Structure formats: structure tokens, C-alpha cells
Amino acid sequence: MTDPYxxxxxxxxxxxxxxxxxxxxxxxxxxxxxxxxxxxxxxGSYEPADRDVVAVExxxxxxxxxxxxxxPVVRAVAERLPFPDAAFxxxxxxxxTHHWTDAAAGxxxxxxxxxxxxxxxxxxxxxxRFWLVADYLPELAERERDLATVDAVRAxxxxxxxxxxxxVPWDCADGFLAAFWRRxxxxxxxxxxxxxxxxxxxxxxxxxxxxxxxxxxVDSGAWARRHGGLSGLGSADVGYRLVVA
Length: 245
Known about the structure:
Rossmann fold; seven-stranded mixed β-sheet; two-stranded antiparallel ribbon; 13 helices; elongated
């Protein structure tokens, strides 16, 4: 089993800490579920402590970053889940379907092993308008054209799937790609960028060029002049979507 996160995911536990407000939204989506399978579980962010959880994660690099006391983990891929039909109340998949080799097969497996599904993904159309993408790294939008995001998830979960926006608080504790929409200086930190798979998988010169331009704009005040209106917002819709079926 290959492990693309051997290099990519080494710092996830440090930069991808769960945000309590997003955790509450996910908990509400889980409803009264008692048993949960978390597919593409990574280092275990947002696994609810008050339910019986089994994690599925193929990357040993990510598994090693799971904290003491985390849910038991099975090394497997989404496309071949080693569980019987309807084994869980809810199948959960958080910001992971775009990493799956065959998203349609993985979503079919998620439906097979769980009675309900809760999937966090994003809308590329909204995300492309986010200033980091639009102004500094348009290559991110180009790369997303082939990724399994909200449309693929909705199609894979069936016509009963309900899509809801997940607003990101301005001081979000989790370091996913658009978390710092009001804090541009954070994107200048290479350790933070290393925890964002979308940026970490772009060619180095592309990222360096975009970051250099952002640094110049932050230092000169150009960023603040263009996006100063964000300073009054407590949260923003930067494209993240919760799909529940």
C-alpha cells in the first residue's frame, strides 16, 4: 500500500487541530448516531468522543499521528471497506474524498456500510473566488477541476443528499486551506502551508511565486486595501460544504 502522506502529512497533527465550532456542526449532523465509521480519518480530527468510532486510514504516517486514546483504526482504503453491510449508524468522511482513487466506489462503500452519511467537502466555484486562489494561487482552481468535491459527493450519495454551507470562523483553530481567510500573514508560514494538501502538492516554484507576491502585498498594505472589509466579519463562507444523506 503506497503512502503519499509519508512526506505530505508529517505535520498534520500540529497544524490540523479541530475547531470546536466546526466540531459542533459535525456533531449536529451526526444526530443520534451511536456508531460511526470515519473513512479517511487521518490524525483523528473531529472524531466524536461520545460515540463508538472506528477509523479507516491507509497512511501509516497519518496513523502514527493519532493521539493516545483515539478511536481504533483499520488500515484500509475507502474503495474496499472491511465491514459488513449497514455495520454503522453513520459513515463520516471529512475533507478526504478528493484523495480517493475512485470516489464513486468509495462513496458507494460508505453507503453500503452505514445507514446515514456525513461528508465534508467544498464547492470549487465558491473556493475559486477566495482571495488566496483568485489573487495568488489560481493554479489551485485549475487543479480542482478533476477532484471529487461537492458535485461528486452529492451524486455519489444519491438524490436525498442535503448540502449545507459550513462557515469558517475568523480565528479557526484548524489549518485547512481556507481557514485563514482573515489572516493572510499565516499563509507565509511554510509549516502551516505544509498541512494544506492543496498547496503542498503544487509545484514549488508556483507556491514560491504566489507567497512572495502575498508577502509583498501584506507588507505594503495592498492586501488590506483590497480586502479590508473582511476585518469586520466573524465568519465567512469560503466554500466548505456538509453533505448529509
